[in-house]
Write a structure and sequence with these properties.
Keywords (chain A): Membrane, Transmembrane, Transmembrane helix
Number of strands of chain A: 0
CATH superfamily of the largest domain in chain A: NADH-ubiquinone/plastoquinone oxidoreductase chain 6, subunit NuoJ
Largest sheet of chain A: none
Structural class of chain B: mainly alpha
Radius of gyration of chain B: 17 Å
Shape of chain B: elongated
GO molecular function (chain A): NADH dehydrogenase (ubiquinone) activity
Radius of gyration of chain A: 20 Å
Subcellular location (chain B): Membrane
Keywords (chain B): Membrane, Transmembrane, Transmembrane helix, Transport
Order of helices and strands of chain B: HHH
Number of strands of chain B: 0
CATH class of the largest domain in chain A: Mainly Alpha
Shape of chain A: globular
Pfam families (chain A): Oxidored_q3 (PF00499)
CATH class of chain B: Mainly Alpha
Strand content of chain B: under 5%
Distance between the termini of chain B: 53 Å
Largest interface: A-B, 85 and 67 residues
Oligomer: heterodimer
Number of helices of chain A: 6
Order of helices and strands of chain A: HHHHHH
Chain lengths: 162, 99
Amino acid sequence: MVAQNVAFWIIAIAMVLSAIGVVRTSNVVHAALYLVIVLAGAAAQYILLAAEFVAWVQVLIYIGAVVILFLFGIMLTRSPMGDLDLDNSQRMPAFVACLALVGTLTALLVDAFGNSKVVIDAPTKTSVLSSDIFRLYIVPFEAVSILLLAALVGAIVLARRD
Amino acid sequence: MILNQFLILSAVIFSIGIYGVLVRRNGVLVLMSIELMLNAVNLNLIAFSAYLKDTSGQIFVLFVITIAAAEVGVGLAIILLLFRNFRSPDLDQAQQLKG
């Protein structure tokens, strides 16, 4: 339990600092690299919570595919490199809104869940997960497949030049 | 481990994502902030799945990851189109519908 808590805090601090890096850095490519740290940290938290399969899906799809897509986006839009001001003039109001949201959510969560413990006895078996997907959630699964196809066709239609 | 440490971490990351969406001008950076928010939600779902010993949360995370991938694909196509029309990836440029 102690080892898990130490791991949690190390990963949590790394995640929060990198998330701040994503929204504060003045270099677009650095933002993508900070995003990788946040996504990897989330995968590590999933492993701490005994969700192995989801953790590896996170690594494969997010770190493997989505970040590469972002880097291609940066390349194709010729985003300016070097230290530039990438923010608009709403810094102060946005910061106040962000702080208010953290405060409200934290107060609500502490009030609602207090010291409820997460007890983990064994990692979730992938076979359990897959039989649930293909029995209980087969209709959403098929719907998501159609959505993915539609998004793919839509992206090609939008981005092609003619 | 208590449940709240995961929930509060995800609340903090979600709020940082909100800050990014409100403040950033570059469209690609706005999409990255949206990814931060989606990840915070996923962490929440997994924490509740472990707390309630119910696999539904993990299955919903798989769906959210799929939809996030689709969203990034379409979002980047839209930003590419914006770049072609305005010669800049900044979202502030797109204000032709403003009265």
